[in-house]
């Protein structure tokens, strides 16, 4: 009988933990979706080139700690002077992230999208061996020890050709 009571305790503990995570993600996603909808509304006026449902490998490094985000997909909004990455993670629950802007001119972009994180890329690499992959390395302008590695995967030849214009943004 003690095993049944222990298993019941762990089942209730896991259920309460998942319920708490679900409530947290509901409020987090609601706030993030507001920023995404605001961005999409502004972006639609500027007529970007949109690539939907691109597979993404995204990791952030802070000192010795590296955070890897699994199962991420994104939509890319390619403008003349900047690239917006709108991420979403499909894991146990669906999690949305605020858009990230990659641009060579942060000041001008911040005037248009002042509510989004904006980065100047350190390095952009179009892989020759693995076709359809682009690596982007970013460093936070304020906190220099925060580094972000983004790899766009599964791009078609047309998408890769259109993304070539970001190659000289470093």
What does this 3D model show about the protein?
The chain is an alpha+beta fold. Helix content is 35%, strand content 38%. It has three helices and nine strands; from the N terminus they run H-E-E-E-E-E-H-E-E-E-E-H. It has helices at residues 2-46, 106-112, 157-163; strands at 49-62, 65-78, 83-90, 94-96, 100-102, 117-119, 121-126, 134-139, 146-153. Strands 1, 2, 3, 4, 5, 6, 7, 8 and 9 form a nine-stranded mixed beta sheet that branches. The radius of gyration is 19 Å and the shape is elongated. The termini are far apart. The model has no long low-confidence stretch (mean pLDDT 86).
Short description:
By secondary structure, this protein is an alpha+beta fold. Helix content is 35%, strand content 38%.
What is the approximate shape?
elongated
Question: What is the rounded Rg?
Answer: 19 Å
Order of helices and strands: HEEEEEHEEEEH
N/C terminus separation: 65 Å
Please estimate the helix content. Answer: 25-40%
**Most strands sheet:** 9 strands, mixed
Layout of SSEs?
Blueprint: H1 2-46, E1 49-62, E2 65-78, E3 83-90, E4 94-96, E5 100-102, H2 106-112, E6 117-119, E7 121-126, E8 134-139, E9 146-153, H3 157-163
Parallel strand pairs: 5-6
Antiparallel strand pairs: 1-2, 1-9, 2-3, 3-4, 3-5, 7-8, 8-9
Search tags:
about 170 residues, alpha+beta, 9-stranded mixed sheet, 3 helices
């Amino acid at each position: 009988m003690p095993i049944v009571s222990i298993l019941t305790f762990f089942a209730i503990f896991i259920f309460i933990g998942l319920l708490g995570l679900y409530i947290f993600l509901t409020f987090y996603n609601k706030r993030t979706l507001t920023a995404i909808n605001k961005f999409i509304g502004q972006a639609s006026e500027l007529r970007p080139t949109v690539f939907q449902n691109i597979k993404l490998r995204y990791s952030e490094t802070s000192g010795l700690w590296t955070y890897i985000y699994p199962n991420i997909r994104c939509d890319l909004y390619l403008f003349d002077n900047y690239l917006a990455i709108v991420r979403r993670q499909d894991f146990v629950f669906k999690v949305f992230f605020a858009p990230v802007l990659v641009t060579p001119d942060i000041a001008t972009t911040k005037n248009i999208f002042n509510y989004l994180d904006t980065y100047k890329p350190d390095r952009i690499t179009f892989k020759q061996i693995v076709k359809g992959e682009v690596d982007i390395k970013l460093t936070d302008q304020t906190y220099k020890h925060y580094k972000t590695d983004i790899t766009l995967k599964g791009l078609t030849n047309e998408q890769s050709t259109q993304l070539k214009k970001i190659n000289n943004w470093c």
